[in-house]
């Protein structure tokens, strides 16, 4: 069967530009005619839901930590409830999570009245010290991640402000631009003016050992174990009950047969609308999600790096078109790109070493919840004792009242 483009474009071209245009139009037509219906994945949505409680606590705590002296008037925090997405009053939140933040009285101005202030508790300060130790222990991993983010970027340069915005996604410490850049001048150079997108981090030297993707390393390991040369390729697996149309399945099979393009390879010669460039874009997105500590990143966050990583404006359609590799969750009203292979059900199986920080924080929260449960239990017991003590007295009062009436 002839393509609908055959009428307008002959099979052979004397002009290479015309040939390229034909190929691009054919590729665009093939993609636009194949639709993939988004389907909900309850297990992966639940993975996001599982983190909801501790993320809320982390937001409130960061708000206090970012204040001078790590203290803030209670009413100031109360005024920020909407931005923090806090559904209860600030004081109620602190009571529900004992041992994280302390309330004390102080003056906003020297001669003003005493008002409630919030400060970091001793228990939370201890956790922050443990966090520093975990960062220090994993410093080589953090440096490698930062190198990889720069190695994938056009001209090996990324906006420093953008990197600061995604520091929590990749597990970078708050002061990584100050401490790591100055400590590793052989890898990084910071230049430009801080703020307003005019500061940039540049890769100084290229390390061929670091310039290997997760997929390439996996293929090398399989080759070593089997003794057979394994080519790098994406793991494509749809959850049970998730089906795609025959035409799309065939398109995917053809696409998978294209050679894998490393996200660290020079692709300046590739056209942005080619199938090869899509293969490379999927590789970059796969690698970015693999470098993130939760193996998932909000789509708007990834969209900030379109220029650096040569993403098209419609890059988010990749997550549904290649639904055997990625899942795009809509949980919480935010589009979140997730790496399917990193999860088993709602649990991460491909755990980043920096997840130890989250584990420690969740332990801290569990201790706080146990403390509150114990306090509530003691209150109930005291209330029962008070009722028992009051019962004989109330009985005596009843007898006096009856005697007086008679």
Describe the structure.
- The protein is mainly α and 406 residues long.
- The strands form 4 sheets. The protein has a 3-stranded antiparallel sheet.
- The chain folds into 3 domains: 90 residues, Arc Repressor Mutant, subunit A (Orthogonal Bundle), CATH 1.10.10; 66 residues; 145 residues, no CATH class.
- The N terminus is likely disordered.
Question: What keyword list fits this structure?
Answer:
406 residues, mainly alpha, Arc Repressor Mutant, subunit A, three-stranded antiparallel beta sheet, 18 helices, disordered N terminus, PORR_domain, PORR domain-containing protein, PORR_fam
Structure at a glance:
This protein has 406 residues and is mainly alpha-helical. Helices cover 51% and strands 11% of the residues. This is PORR domain-containing protein.
């Amino acid at each position: 069967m002839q393509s609908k483009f055959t009428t307008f474009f002959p099979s052979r071209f004397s002009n290479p530009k015309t040939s390229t245009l034909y190929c691009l139009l054919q590729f665009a037509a093939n993609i636009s005619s194949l639709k993939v219906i988004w389907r909900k994945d309850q297990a992966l949505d639940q993975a996001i839901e599982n983190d909801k409680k501790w993320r809320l606590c982390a937001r409130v705590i960061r708000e206090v930590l970012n204040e001078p002296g790590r203290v803030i008037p209670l009413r100031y925090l109360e005024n920020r409830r909407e931005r923090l997405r806090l559904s209860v009053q600030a004081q109620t939140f602190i009571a529900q999570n004992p041992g994280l933040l302390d309330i004390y009285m102080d003056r906003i101005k020297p001669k003003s009245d005493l008002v409630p202030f919030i400060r970091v508790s001793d228990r939370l300060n201890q956790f922050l010290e443990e966090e520093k130790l975990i960062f220090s222990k994993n410093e080589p991993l953090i440096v490698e991640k930062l190198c990889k983010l720069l190695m994938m970027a056009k001209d090996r340069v990324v906006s420093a402000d953008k990197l600061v915005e995604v520091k929590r996604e990749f597990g970078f410490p708050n002061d990584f631009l100050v401490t790591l850049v100055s400590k590793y001048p052989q890898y990084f150079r910071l230049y430009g003016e801080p703020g307003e997108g005019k500061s940039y981090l540049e890769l100084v030297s290229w390390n061929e050992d670091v310039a290997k993707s997760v997929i390439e390393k996996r293929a090398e390991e399989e080759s070593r174990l089997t003794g057979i040369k394994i080519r790098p390729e994406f793991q494509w697996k749809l959850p049970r009950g998730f089906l795609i149309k025959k035409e799309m399945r065939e398109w995917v099979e053809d696409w998978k047969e294209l050679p894998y393009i490393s996200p660290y390879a020079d692709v300046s010669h590739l056209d942005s609308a080619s199938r090869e460039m899509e293969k490379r874009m999927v590789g970059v997105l796969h690698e970015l999600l693999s470098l993130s500590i939760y193996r998932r990143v909000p789509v708007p966050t990834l969209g900030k790096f379109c220029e650096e990583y040569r993403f098209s404006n419609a890059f988010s359609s990749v997550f549904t078109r290649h639904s055997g590799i990625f899942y795009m969750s809509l949980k919480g009203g935010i589009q979140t790109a997730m790496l399917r292979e990193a999860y088993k059900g709602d649990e991460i199986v491909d755990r980043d070493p920096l997840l130890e920080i989250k584990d420690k924080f969740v332990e801290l929260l569990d201790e706080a919840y146990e403390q509150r449960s114990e306090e509530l239990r003691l209150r109930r017991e005291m209330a029962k004792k008070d009722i028992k003590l009051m019962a004989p007295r109330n009985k005596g009062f009843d007898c006096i009242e009856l005697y007086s009436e008679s």
